[in-house]
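Limitations

Structures in this collection are predictions, not experimental determinations, and the ligand pose is part of the prediction. Treat each record accordingly. The example that follows, with 6-O-phosphono-beta-D-fructofuranose as the small molecule, is included so readers can see exactly what is and is not provided: the inputs are given verbatim, and the output is the predicted complex.
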Amino acid sequence: MAEKVIKTIGVLTSGGDAPGMNAAIRAVVRRGLSSGLNVKGIYKGYLGLLNEEIIDMTAKDVSDTIERGGTVLYTARCSEFRTEEGQKRGMDVCLKYGIDGLVVIGGDGSFAGAQKLANLGINTIGVPATIDLDIACTEYTIGFDTAVNTAMEAIDKVRDTSTSHERCSIIEVMGRGAGYLALWCGIANGAEDVLIPEKYDYDEQKLINNIIDSRKKGKKHHIIINAEGIGHSEAMAKRIEAATGIETRATILGHMQRGGSPTCKDRVYASILGAMAVDLLVAGKSCRVVGYNHGEFTDFDINEALAMKKSVSDYQWEVCQSLSHNYSKNEQDKKHARSKKA
Ligand code: ADP
Ligand code: F6P
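Predicted complex:
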C-alpha cells in the first residue's frame, strides 16, 4: 500500500507538562513549515482536540518560546479520550481540520492515545516528554534534565539549613511510580539515604540505625531523598524523630520541579526529537515514538514501545548506596554482620 502523503500536521502536548516541551513544539512547527506542510497547534492535549481548540501556526508563533518552561499549547488530561467514542470523535476532528499527521508530545498515556488514533488512520508520532524519565523505549525524556537540576539545587539549600540545625531532613521528590529523580538526586546531592519504590524494602528500623550510626560518627545532618512513589514523608519524619531523638523535618518539593527554564540539554534534545517526528511523518511513517539511546536518536513502533519495561539499573543503585555512607569496607562488613544477627 502506498504511504500516505501528509499535507497538514497537528501538534499537541498532553499529560504532565515538562520543561523543554516548548522547544519540541517550536521544532515541529518550524520543521513542518520548512518541509512545505501546514501546521496546526492543538491546545490542551486530547481535550482541546475534542473541543476543537485548534489554530494555524506560523514560525513567528513560536518565537521567544524555547527558553520558557511549561507548554505554550497548554496541556490537560482527558478521560473521554480513553473511550472508543472519544477516540473516534478525535479522528473525526482531525479529518474536519485536514490533519493527516499528528505529533503527540507527552508520556506513555499520551502515546496510548496516539496509538489509538494511528489505528483509526491518522498518522501519529510520539515525542517523549516527562520529568519522571519513566518511558521504557528511551534513555532520555524531555524535562528530566531540567527537573533533576532544579531538585538538586533545592536539596542543596535544604541541606544548608539541615546542617546548621543538626537535623535529619526527608526531601520528597516527584516521579509518580518511578525513582529516577530520587536516585539521581541521591547521587548528585550526596544523600545519606535514598528511598525509591523499585528498591526500598520498607525496613524503617534499618533507616533509623543508619541515622543513629552516622550521628555517632559526627555527621551534622542526615539527608534522606524519598521518592513520591513511597511518599508519606511527614509521617515518616515524625516516626524518625520519635525513634532517634533527632529533630526531623520533611520537605516536599512538589510542582516547582516541573517548572522553570529548560536546560541546554532539554532545549537541544527536544528540538532534535521534534524535528525527527516531522521527518518521520513526511516519510509517511505512523505509530512511531522517537527517543534517544546509546548516543543515537532512534524511533520505535508505539505498540512495541508501550510493551517495553524499564527498571533502575542495579549497578547505579549499588553505586548510589556505596557512596552514601562514609564507612570503610571493614565497618560495612561489621554492620552487615550486626544487622544479620538482629
Ligand atoms: P502521560 O502522557 O504523561 O503518561 P497520562 O497518563 O495522564 O499522562 O495521559 C495523558 C492523556 O492521554 C490522558 O488524559 C488521556 O487523554 C490519554 N490517554 C491515556 N491513556 C490512554 C489510553 N489507554 N487510551 C487512550 N488515551 C489515553
Ligand atoms: O508525570 C509527571 C508528574 O509530575 C509526576 O511526577 C507526578 O506524580 C504527577 O506528574 C503529578 O501530576 P499532577 O500534578 O499534574 O496531578
